[in-house]
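Hi F.,

I've been meaning to write this up properly since the lab meeting, where we talked about keeping a consistent format for the predictions we share between groups. The idea is simple: the sequence comes first, exactly as it goes in, then the structure tokens exactly as they come out, then a line or two of notes. No screenshots and no reformatting. I'm using this chain as the first example so we have something concrete to point to.
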Amino acid sequence: MGIIDNITKTLQEDLSGEIKQGSKLAIVAACFSFFAFEKLKKELKNIDELRFIFTSPTFITEQTPKAQREFYIPRLNRERSLYGTEFEIKLRNELTQKAIAKECADWIRQKVTFKSNITNENMAGFIQLDDNAYIPINGFTTIDLGCERGNNAYNIVQKISSPDSIKFLSIFNELWQDKNKLQDVTNVVIDNIAVTLP
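Output, unedited:
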């Protein structure tokens, strides 16, 4: 167990040291950015799999009447974060973005499955990496990895080791199998990344 303050030690540094050949990742988070992939791509290319759950309805087919669409406005921001949050985009140019997007899309096709929460139930974010869990996690972005500050006053993450971390994997696996709560959106994520490609 330990505390990652994202000042003296970042989540990126810790994950980089913990991800091994054949590692398995399970992430529950509000958003995914391919700039976060870029920061850990050397390590992420060696994992066996990443299973990712979006904590709120994201990349799902909209089936809500027009009168209730206000609920979906934040969802669009979560979906746009795929290309980087407002803080990440400021630092990137379009050519770099296309190269990262292509590399990330190729990696996703080989190693990643995305599912989205289709309920109104809240899901707290976390990362499960082999025998370690990291909480709380808002998104998988360079800000959440501690690479950039963003507009957070602080960004403290607790690292929980086995056997306590196993409970998080158990919760994840139970959610992952529940078709009433999650919808596979992997192809939609890949299609959205492809929009940035030439």
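Notes:
The first helix runs from residue 11 to 18.
Confidence is low (pLDDT under 50) at residues 64-75.

If this format works for you, I'll send the rest the same way.

G.
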